[in-house]
Amino acid sequence: MSSSIYLAAPLFTQAEIAFNQSLADQLKAAGYKVYLPQQECAGTTDPVELFNICIQGLDNASMVLVILDGTDADSGSCFEVGYAFAKNIPIVGLRTDFRGSGEHMGVNLMLSNSCQHLLLTTSNIDSSPAKVTYLKMGENFFPTLQEVLSKIPVAQTALIDQDFEI
Question: What pTM does this model have?
Answer without folding.
Answer: 0.82
